[in-house]
Amino acid sequence: MFILSEDSNRTQGRDAQSSNIMAGKAVSEAVRTTLGPRGMDKMLVDSSGNVVITNDGATILNEMDIEHPAAQMIVEVAESQEEEVGDGTTTAAVIAGNLLAEAEDLIEQDVHATTIVEGYHEAARIALEAIEDQVLDVDVDDELLEQVAVSSMTGKGTGGLQTETLAETVVGAIRQVNSDEGVQRDNVEIHTQVGSSSNATELVNGIVIDEEPAHDEMPTSVEDASVAILDVELGIRTGEVDAEYSIDSIDQLNAALDAEEDELRRYAQEVIDSGVDVLFTTDDVDDRVASLLASEGILTFADITNKKARKVANATGARRVGALEDLSEDDFGHADRVRTETYGDDDLAFVEGGAAAEAVTVFVRGGTDHVVDELERAIQDALDVVTAALDSGEVVPGAGATEIAIADEVRSAAAGIEGRKQLAVTAFADALDIVPRTLAGNTGQDPIDALVDLRAAHEAEGRAGLVTDGETVTIGDPVEHGVVDPADVKREAVESATEAATMIVRIDDVIAAE
To answer: Which residue among 56, 87, 277, 373 is the active-site one?
Structure first.
């Protein structure tokens, strides 16, 4: 009896498990060499010839053309990690891949998939408790936040810019948007601009938008500016109905032109009389109106998008006005300075020190598109981990020390678990060792020797990680060297990796339409 379509392909039992596990491991291996301060970069070229050079795990997995459904689950691990805490994507993917590898060995030993899943979940619970024990009893001040940012960015493409300098910018941005309600992460934006050294990267207390003045004679900088936002066309308005006008004489033509000119002058005069210094409008501004406004020193930006209008409103406190006659000082916002700058062929407007003070922008510079793109990814991750650390107030040792500690805790707890589930719990602990092993391998050390030394140092000192200082790699206390990570990054990596691995292991039947 044929239940499925003749075009369907079905894989069952051990073959299905093996195929899915192999696919998940392959994806994990693809990003494994990018982990840590000595991680390597990947060059990704799409079908159109576009090139991305990065060692960001989430970016690599998103750019890869992955079709296998089980492999796609590992991609989702990285995506989940990115969405929740912004960093640790490679760690999560690598742990998930190694959990699958350990599960494959157990399946070969005839340990049932359900037993493996139960053991992994039990081990994950123990691991999360162990992470709590690793949380440092310290105040999360600016110095510690900068260490978190440096730890996140070390080994990533920063265009030659010192990570310590960049960390100060990142922490400054997050502090600017921190309030009693927590960090308003969405109020920190990144704007990239090619054409200068990455050392020119700066923090703008306000917003940056791609806009140029409506007239060349307008001022390039306005201090202590009153800002207005209009949803009005400052030009001759045309109706939606087609109409024709018959003009029989030159006097009628002149009268029509004079009426048109008077209408434009009225628009300009109403703006001038309002007392505004800087005007943003989401509609067009006639060249004659722009010229009149320029003669009065009013900096005007025309035809901006709704998104940009909202950004200006959030930064300055201005209210959008839908009718010119309704414009008044009550609708104005304020900015300490509005200026325009030209970078090659690009014109940018900087709205700084807005009255609402709800927005800051990291203005990223770099010599090439590849440099600014990778620098943007590094800063994005750093902003997210600093936010996570500040919101939770919890950090743990980095450099593989936390993974060594929780693996040791899980391995010890396994002795008290009965039955074959103990094997799965022990396998989970062994899987966590992949992080320090990979860190060691990426620094040129022997992974096995490094793991043995790390375990010995952990037993003796209570805390041990692979600390990279320039060209030197030593086993020591990461906290003393300022290598720390948000606790939420470790929690999310364990949880998401466990969920993906157990889901894949439980699949014993794959039905695919061809």
So the answer is: 56
Sheet holding 188-194, edge to edge: 188-194, 360-366, 202-204
Residue from 402, 464, 454, 465 nearest 95 by CA: 402
Determine contact, residues 479/81, Cβ cutoff 8 Å: no
Token pair 């060692």 in the structure block, residue: 55
Helices (H), 85-230: 89-108, 113-134, 142-153, 163-176
Cβ–Cβ under 8 Å, residues 226 and 337:
no
The single residue of 89, 300, 443, 498 carrying the catalytic annotation is 89
Q: Is 90 noted as a catalytic residue in this protein? A: yes
Long-range contacts of 235-241 (CB under 8 A, 24+ apart): 235/264, 235/267, 235/284, 235/285, 235/286, 235/289, 236/260, 236/263, 236/264, 236/286
Phi-psi region of 54 (alpha: psi -120 to 50; beta: other; left: phi over 0): beta
- Predicted TM-score (pTM) above 0.85: no
Catalytic residue among 33, 34, 59, 90: 90
Q: Are residues 410 and 428 in contact, defined by beta-carbon separation less than 8 angstroms?
A: yes
Q: Residue 150: in which H helix or E strand, if any?
A: helix 142-153
Q: What rounded mean pLDDT belongs to the chain?
A: 82
Angle between helices 163-176 and 369-392 (to 10 degrees): 50
Distance (Å, rounded) from C-alpha 435 to C-alpha 129? 19
393-429 tens-digit pLDDT: 888 888 888 999 999 999 888 888 888 889 999 999 9
User: Per-residue pLDDT tens for 199-255?
Assistant: 788 888 888 989 999 999 999 999 999 999 998 888 766 555 555 656 666 765 555
As a whole number of angstroms, the distance between CA 211 and CA 213 comes to 7
